[in-house]
Amino acid sequence: MGSGSSLACDISLNSILPKHLQDRYQNPSLIRRILAESKTIAMVGLSSDGQRPSYFVASYLKYEGYRIIPVNPKAKEILGEKAYPDVRSIPHPIDLVEVFRRPEECDEIVQQAIEKKAKTVWFQLRIVNEHAAQAAEAAGLDVVMDKCVKMEHGRYNGSLHWVGMNTEIITARKARRLF
Amino acid sequence: MNESKRAFGFETRMLHAGHIPDAVTGARAVPIYQTTSYVFDDTDFAAQLFELKQYGNIYTRIMNPTTAVFEERLASLENATGCLATASGQAAQFIALATLLQPEDEIVASAHLYGGTYTQFSHTLRKLCVKAHFVDPTDPKNFERALTPKTRALYGETIGNPRGSILDIEAAAEIAKARRIPLIVDNTFATPWLCRPIDFGATIVVHSATKFIGGHGTSIAGALLESGNFDYSHYPTVSDPSPSYHNLKFYETFGHYGFLMKARAETLRDVGACISPFNSFLLIQGLETLSLRMERHVQNALAVAQFLKSHPKVEWVSYAGLPDSPYHALAKKYTPKGPGAVFAFGVRGGREAGKKFIEALQIFSHLANVGDAKSLVIHPASTTHQQLSDEELQKCGVGPELIRLSIGLETLEDLLWDLDQALLATSR
Ligand SMILES: Cc1ncc(COP(=O)(O)O)c(C=O)c1O
Fold first, then answer.
1. Could you tell me which chain B residue has the CA closest to the CA of A176?
2. Which of A82, A143, B94, B232 has its CA 20 to 30 A from that of B126?
3. Contact: A53, B253; criterion CB under 8 Å
4. For chains A and B, what is the number of CB pairs under 8 angstroms?
C-alpha cells in the first residue's frame, strides 16, 4: 500500500521542533517530492557497523533503489560503494545530503552541500541546527529537519504501516506508489 | 504550503485511519488476510526483513495486514505513535510489562484493577520475580509513597474496576516523569472516545479490545500503544544490545518506535499471543461505530445510575457520572463525555438478595464480560474476583452486595423495567 497524493493527518507526532518549524522543515508535500526526485544520497556519518542506525537507514534506502554514497573518513567502502572523507570529495553530483552528525557539525556540512550543488539537506531525527538550515535555504536548497528518511519513506510508501505504526495518512483514494 | 496537512476529526479517523484502498482491487472494506505467512521478494529482501532492516510482512504471529489496519486505526484514535494488537487484554498487559521489565524489577499498581489483571500481577509476574505493590489510587500520592529504587513502572486503569474510581492520570504521570519511569494506563472502560491517556502524560496504554472496541461481544483481543515521547535509554530491556537480533539496539535504532518494535519483534514473537486476522477485522468493524455506541452507552448508563440511586431496594450506586460520587470531579476532567458504562451498585439484603436479583433479570445477560452492545450483569464476589482472598477482595473494594452492570444499547425504558422488576423480586 502507498499513500499516493493523499493528505497527512496533522497531529504531528514525534518531533521536538516547535509548530512553526515543523511547518517549515517537515512539510509532507515537500518530503514526498524530495523522496520522489532524489536519486543519489550522500550519507554523512554512515557507519560501517551493520547494527548502527545509520546502516539500517542506508541499507533500507539502497534496497528501495537509491544510490547511497557513504561519507565517513574512517571507511573505505560501505554497502558496496566507495566511501569519501567529506561531501566536497565526492566526484559526482549529489541530490540529497543526509546528515547523521551532531548539530555542531551541520554548518560545515551545509557549506559543502551548497558547494556541491546538492538540491536538499536532510537533518536526521533529533538533529536540529536552525542556523545551518537557514544557510541552506538562503542558497536555494530544500531543508528537512528532525525526521528520519527511512521512517518517512516507510510512512509514505506504506511499509511502516505493516508494523502497526501511526503513519498519520488519511485518505479514501486508491493507493498509489510515488517512490 | 500546508495544503497537504489536515487535522482530521476523531470520527473520520475511526472510519479511515490505517486503511487505504489497495491499488489493485480498490476494495473499500478492509480485506481479511487470513494467511499465516508471506512470500518474500527475493533472498536479499528476506534476509533484510529478518534483520528488521526492512519493514514488511513475515509471519502472522508477528504481523498481518488486516491486523495492521486495526493497529494503526487505534493508534490514531489514541494519539499514539503506534500500536501492537494481541490475542487478549491480558496478553497486552503481559507483553507491555515483559518488554519493559526484568527479574527483580518492581511496579506500583493501583489496587482498583480488573481481577484478572490483579492476579496476573500478584501471581504470574511474581513467579517471574517481578513484584507489584498495590496502592489505593484515590490519593495519587500513594503511588509516590510506594516507590522503591527498583520501581520501573506505574500502572492504573482510567476507570477502575469494579467501583468506577477515576485515575488522576496527570498526577500519576507527574510522579512517573519525576522518576523517569513510564505510566501505563489500561483505557479499556473509557475507550479513546471518552479519554486519551497519552494526552494527559501516560506513556503506554493497554486495552482489552474484547470490550467496547469490538463492542459486540464476539472476539477476545487486546492492544498496547505507546506515546513515542519516553526516553528508554536507561531501560536495559529496551536499549541494550539484543542477543536475539545480532545485538541490535532497539531504542537507538528505531527511536520512538523502539519500544513497540521490541514488543513486536521479540516479546510477541516469543510469547506467541498473537491476534487472529478475522478478529482484527471484527474489531475494525467495532471501531467504525465507536463514538456512536459510546455516546449511547454513557447516556443509558447515566439514566440507569440515576434510576437506581432513587430505588428503595438499592443501598448505594457507585458511578462517577453522579454528582455525589467522590470521583465526579475527576470524571469531569478526564471523561467529560461521561465516565463509561460499567459501574457497580449495592443491592439491599447482601449476598442472598444479590443472587435473587440476578436470577430475576430478563434482559440483562448474566455473564463474565463488559462492553457488549447488550446489557450485562455480574456478581463479582462469586465470579471474576473469586480467586482473591477476603483480604484481597476488600483491598479491591468488592463487598458481597456488589452488583456490576455494563449498560448496553437497548431501549432505556426496557432496561429500567428489567432492573425494577428484578429488584422487587429480591424481597419475595
Ligand atoms: C479493565 C480490563 N483490563 C483487562 C482485561 C483483560 O482483557 P481480556 O479479557 O481481553 O484478556 C479486562 C477483562 O475483563 C478488563 O476489564
1. B23
2. B232
3. yes
4. 157
Taking the C-alpha atoms of residue B92 and residue B342, their distance in angstroms, rounded to an integer, is 21
Contacts of B139 (CB under 8 A, 6+ apart): none
Terminal C-alpha separation, chain B: 73
10 Å Cβ neighbour count for B324? Answer: 7
Strand partners, B324: none
Q: Give the pairing type, strands B151-157 and B106-110.
A: parallel
Query: Does the interface ipTM go beyond 0.90?
Result: yes
Rounded CA-CA distance B114/A46 in Å is 49
B89 alpha carbon to ligand 1 midpoint, in Å?
A: 5
pLDDT in tens, chain B (428 residues): 446 778 899 999 999 999 999 988 999 999 999 999 999 999 999 999 999 999 999 999 999 999 999 999 999 999 999 999 999 999 999 999 999 999 999 999 999 999 899 999 999 999 999 999 999 999 999 999 999 999 999 999 999 987 789 999 999 999 999 999 999 999 999 999 999 999 999 999 999 999 999 999 999 999 999 999 999 999 999 999 999 898 999 999 999 999 999 999 999 999 999 999 999 999 999 999 999 999 999 999 999 999 999 999 999 999 999 999 999 999 999 999 999 999 999 999 888 898 899 999 999 999 999 999 999 999 877 777 667 666 676 676 678 889 999 999 999 999 999 999 999 999 88
Contact B5 A14 (CB under 8 A): no
The dihedral formed by the CA atoms of B274, A57, A155 and B40, expressed in degrees to the nearest 10? -50
Using the Cβ of B428 and the Cβ atoms of chain A, whether some distance falls under 8 Å is answered with: no
Cβ contact B13–A9 (<8 Å) = yes
3-state secondary structure of A23: helix
The span from the CA of A142 to the CA of A136, in Å, is 7
- pLDDT reported for residue B37: 97
CA distance A69 to chain B (A): 18
pLDDT tens digit sequence for B55-87: 999 999 999 999 999 999 999 999 999 999 999
Q: What is the DSSP letter of B164?
A: -
Any idea where the domains of chain A sit in the sequence? 17-149
Nearest CA in chain B to A6: B4
Q: Which of residues 73-132 of A touch B (CB under 8 A)?
A: 125-126
Residues in contact with ligand 1 (CB, 6 Å cut-off):
B 88-90, 114, 116-117, 157, 161, 186, 188-189, 208, 210, 220, 222, 370
Instruction: Pick the closest to residue B175 from B150, B201, B206, B198 (CA basis).
Output: B201
Backbone angles phi, psi at B185, to 5 degrees: -125, 125
Domains and CATH numbers, chain B: 10-286 (3.40.640.10), 290-427 (3.90.1150.10)
Minimum CA distance residue for ligand 1 atom 10: B89
Helix ranges, chain A (H): 19-25, 28-37, 53-63, 106-115, 130-138, 149-157, 159-162
Q: For the domain bounded by A17-149, which CATH number is listed?
A: 3.40.50.720
d(CA B257, CA B83): 10
Alpha-carbon span B156 to B162, nearest angstrom:
13
